[in-house]
């Protein structure tokens, strides 16, 4: 039977000095209603979230995820989350699925209209089985994101660097990719630069150098990309943040989509043209990403 778990959190002020937050958590019945009909997360997608990979009960890269939750909250003018409260909630949730691969989700919503505080909760559930796609890779199509490289800095109200709950566009891009006979998408700016996938960061290899799009382009700074970079640097490779054109992707020596739950998957084709891949390095990256971090 699939184990699922949900914990409602009463968010405390970021300056709260208590050590133990367990009395701010309430375990919920996952099959029972838990949110008010006035919730802005459900009405407007107005909130931020994180998805953390859990392997055999160990939650990976918790610090990077709670820091990014705080970063997203800042961009969205949400009250600053108390990081230690969230770390403790993650630990409680991860411990509930001690075997296999799981996902812990952190959700911080603007709350209810005229309500006293944001609404916050974490869930834990088993992850889909991604072993085949980690072995076989994905074919991607490039899809227009509708704005240029400078939009993130020019128009902060677009919330481009925040991991908001408004993922309808990201999901629509995945459906469009499938309609075009591919498995995944890579977003492209109006001025021809590749950004990220709807649910993953892009890393491109050119010789012994690995390049990813700089977060200043208005994309998420991926926690998995950060870990992969640390690993590659420890292996003596050079890593870089830069701008990458569509032809940089199409002519790369290899490329990957990386994310917390699916981990590293090789890109095997771009817009129908085959791309070289490196199955040994992909397997090595996934061995590293599956280890406790
Ligand atoms: N970019 C987007 C748009 C995402 O949704 C995600 C993850 O869901 C990522 C990048 C990769 O982030 P992470 O490695 O932290 O999972």
TrEMBL record:
- Return the InterPro entries for the record: Aminotrans_IV (IPR001544), Aminotransferase-like (IPR036038), BCAT-like_C (IPR043132), BCAT-like_N (IPR043131), Class-IV_PLP-Dep_Aminotrnsfr (IPR050571)
Superkingdom of the source species? Bacteria
Residues spanning the membrane: none
Family recorded in the similarity comment: Belongs to the class-IV pyridoxal-phosphate-dependent aminotransferase family.
Q: Which GO terms fall under molecular function for this chain's record?
A: lyase activity
Native source organism of the sequence: Microbacterium suwonense
What's in the keyword line of the UniProt record? Lyase
Q: Which SUPFAM superfamilies match?
A: D-aminoacid aminotransferase-like PLP-dependent enzymes (SSF56752)
The name this protein goes by in its record: 4-amino-4-deoxychorismate lyase
Quote any Pfam family the record assigns.
Answer: Aminotran_4
Q: Coiled-coil segments, which residues? A: none
